[in-house]
Design brief:
This protein is mostly helical and 67 residues long. It has one domain. The chain is built from 1 helix and 3 strands; from the N terminus they run βββα. It has a 3-stranded antiparallel beta sheet with strand order 1-2-3. A hairpin with a 6-residue loop joins strand 1 and strand 2. The longest helix has 43 residues. It is rod-shaped.
Length: 67
Amino acid sequence: MIPVEGHKDLFRDEKTGAILDTNSNSYSSYITRKNKKMDEKAELDNMKKDIQEIKELLKQITGQITS
């Protein structure tokens, strides 16, 4: 493994040329941030679905009142 100049935790794989990060704390932080974003997106998607259901129910209610 060849050290990347200016980065103590980065190394270049001699066979593939890939840059590897050997700092496990930064990887753990990345995974935590990624999971949080996925959770937030799922929550937002659920809220959008709930709002759509509320809109459909309101349309049904207003349709029954005017009929």
